[in-house]
Amino acid sequence: DIQMTQSPSSVSASVGDRVTITCRASQDVSNWLAWYQQKPGRAPKLLINSASRLQDGVPSRFSGSGSGTDFTLTITSLQPDDFATYYCQQANGFPITFGQGTRLDIK
Amino acid sequence: QVQLQESAPGLVKPSDTLSLTCSVSGASLGGYFWTWIRQPPGKGLEWIGHIYYNGRTSNPSLSSRVTLSVDTSKNQFSLKLSSVTAADSAVYYCAKSYDSSGYRYGMDVWGQGTTVTVSS
User: Which of A17, B50, B62, B74 makes the best surface tag, with the fewest CB within 10 Å?
Assistant: First the structure.
């Protein structure tokens, strides 16, 4: 199985800050990497597919980059609605696997 | 607007078979991959498996215990998980692939999730 490791596991930040979350795959996943946002008690929401393609309706302060084994999700100018848990997910090999999640809290 | 709704008994006994159904509205099953994901309490997401509208399945993580099926006449797809234990207690989600060209672009529509507890 392809292991996905996110860092940090949790981060505290303030409204207006810039935050970067990294995701590392245990083997090459090309650009088949998606990012999700999940709030407590809610289903995950797809933010980015193919490592860098923003879903329709997702604010442009979210961006993704990377290929191969190393990926990043960047949120510029944090808004109150952004405080949530973020997951990366690879779809290059079966089983499809998720990172362990990064919890973004308000400082 | 595409919507997914899971239905399932909330409580399942150990060693029994868990049966989940996802009803799809606002889209037909055709052309998309339909996925099951679960999330144990306080933990991360685990992909269980997916099925194409024609019945073709992936290699599910729990393959020896998992059966996936589709019913295009009812616009539903289903998951059966046999020989359940307490470790199978989780919120179970169904989801739709974002792109009709494949499963690699992520899952853009999710059900609200259904909590399944395995206990005698």
Answer: B74
